[in-house]
Amino acid sequence: MDRIEESLAAAEEAVQIRRDLVAIRPERYLGVLAASLDNVADGASKLGRLTEALRTIDEVVQIRRALATADARAALPDLVLSVHTMADLMARLNRHAEARQLFDDLQIEHGQDNWTHGIVVLERAWWHGLDGNIAAAIADAGNALQLLEADPVRQADVRRLLRTMRRADPTRFDAAWPPRHGDQPAWLRHLEPNPSIDEVIHDWMECARTGTLADEQAFLVRHGELLSDEAEAAFDRLIDANPGHAGLRSHQIIIRSARSGDVAQAYAQYTEQMWSDEVSTALASWIAAVSHDDLRRRLAEDEAHLLSDEAAAQCDAMIAGAPPMPETLWRIGLLAICRSDGETNAFTILTDRDAVWAMPDRSSLTAYQLACWAWRACEPDSNQTIPRPTSSIQ
Question: pTM of this prediction?
Answer without folding.
Answer: 0.77
